[in-house]
Design brief:
The protein has about 400 residues and is α/β, with parallel strands linked by helices. The protein has one domain: 3-Layer(aba) Sandwich (Rossmann fold). Helix content is about 30%, strand content about 15%. It contains eleven helices and twelve strands. The strands form three sheets. Strands 1, 2, 3, 4, 5, 6, 7 and 10 form an eight-stranded mixed beta sheet that branches. β6, α7 and β7 form a beta-alpha-beta unit. α4 crosses α5. The radius of gyration is 21 Å and the shape is globular. The N terminus is likely disordered. Bound molecules: guanosine-5'-triphosphate and magnesium ion. The site of magnesium ion has 5 residues, from α4.
Length: about 400
């Protein structure tokens, strides 16, 4: 079992952390989601510790059956163990643990569900290609059902119950630094958990609290989702789902002597969610934060270099009061130079039949029979970047620490 306080942002050789094994270690028994060998248990009654799924509603649990063994009669090609995308022997550093953090209904599950859609659309936007696929049947199932819900059924995922562990491989390319350099192939395995937002709340006795705190402690990076609309509501006020967990996390990391220059060691991507919603988008346009592409789908966006200022403005002017404390809390506990900001939407804007943005008709959610439905095929905004850039920052920080 790996050291729960291992700071993966430090090179293991530097820190006296765990040595690099030849194959990826099962991170901890409760997260052993990678290998699924048949045993005496009938395939259809997978135990929770095998599926990585806990506290999950029945209709989801039933989908976690080991259908991949249905033809397990010796007539199939022998399967290899899951391998990381770079094709070479797996090392601990191929794996990256990211925690997804946000208040209830802030958009965490939708963000994860939109990730494979964003990956498929990268080329369309002339960006480096990424291919995402699951490292185990449950992670594949999440990918497939998420894409089906958003893109085919045009509905949002249901509220998360409990915690779901996911393990996805990312095979991609890194944008070149200089103009004459070629794109470089990169790959990593992402370990992430989809957690019900309520676990981040003030109830320190919540049954899943220790597990989520453990995951946060061992993560190299965090993706923090801030929903500017639900922040205004008492039950989903962002600060109430930030401070208490942040405080406990700091205590854990401090006691383990793993603070980095007296602050939490994590790299953080802060995402403002639901940018497509007119109640978020229109004030941003009117306050002058938004520019519009002149080519392609003429998509509007907050320029990347303005995203941090936009978040400041959201907290100061648009929301105020406790939202300011969200901003202050993040800058207080984490190193400001380790935080990046993004303005995101899991579904993007409604586009016209020619696939062009039209300011008269961009609303992409309509309510049918009291169920919110997505109007046009999702074109996620800043869903992949907060993750791939986070991974790249973490990798770069690890390289910098190497003495050679
Ligand atoms: N307009 C818009 N609405 C969104 C978007 N993402 C999520 N939503 C809305 O927010 C609701 C909650 O989204 P979820 O992804 O379930 O949020 P969550 O953070 O996983 O919620 P919990 O699992 O309850 O913690 C959805 O049902 C949608 O109504 C988005 O990109 N745009
Ligand atoms: Mg959820």
């Amino acid at each position: 079992m790996s050291d729960p306080y291992y700071d993966p942002n430090e090179n293991p050789q530097d820190s006296g952390g765990p040595s690099t094994p030849a194959t990826p270690p099962p991170s901890d028994p409760s997260e052993a989601t990678t290998l699924h060998w048949p045993d005496t248990t009938p395939p259809s009654v997978a135990r929770p510790e095998e599926t990585g799924t806990e506290y999950f509603p029945d209709h989801h649990a039933s989908r976690s059956s080991h259908s991949s063994y249905s033809g397990w009669d010796g007539s199939l090609e022998p399967a290899a163990i899951p391998a990381p995308p770079n094709g070479t022997a797996a090392t601990a550093t191929d794996r990256i643990r990211i925690a997804l953090w946000g208040a209830p209904r802030s958009g965490k599950t939708s963000y994860l569900a939109a990730m494979p859609i964003a990956a498929m659309q990268q080329q369309r936007q002339g960006r480096p290609n990424w291919v995402i696929s699951g490292m185990n049947p449950e992670s594949n199932e999440f990918l497939t059902s998420g894409v089906t819900q958003l893109a085919s059924d045009r509905v949002f995922p249901e509220a998360t119950v409990g915690v779901r562990s996911l393990s996805w491989s990312f095979q991609g390319e890194e944008a070149p630094n200089g103009s004459f350099r070629k794109r470089r192939e990169v790959g990593f395995v992402l370990e992430v958990q989809d957690v019900a937002g309520e676990v981040y709340g003030k109830d320190t006795e919540h049954a899943l609290r220790p597990r989520v705190l453990d995951q946060l402690t061992r993560s190299q990076g965090l993706i923090y989702l801030f929903d500017p609309l639900l922040d205004a509501e008492q039950a989903t006020n962002s600060f109430d789902f930030l401070y208490s967990m942040l405080n406990e996390l700091n205590t854990r990391v401090r006691d383990a002597g793993r603070l980095h220059r007296n602050r939490l060691p994590h790299h953080v991507s802060v995402c403002v969610t639901k940018f497509d919603d007119p109640k978020v988008f229109r004030p941003a346009v009117e306050a002058g934060w938004v520019t519009q592409d002149s080519v392609g789908s003429r998509l509007p966006r907050v320029p990347a270099e303005q995203a941090a200022h936009y978040f400041q403005w959201l907290c100061d002017e648009f929301r105020g009061s406790n939202a300011r404390l969200v901003r202050d809390g993040l800058l207080n506990f984490f190193h400001p130079q380790r935080i990046s900001y993004y303005v995101s939407s899991a579904i993007g804007f409604r586009l016209n039949p020619q696939h062009i943005f039209d300011y008269r008709n961009y609303l992409n959610v309509e309510t049918v029979d009291r169920v919110p439905r997505i109007c046009t095929s999702p074109v996620p905004i800043n869903v992949l970047e907060p993750l791939t850039e986070l991974e790249s920052r973490i990798r770069a920080a690890g390289r910098r620490r190497r003495p050679w």
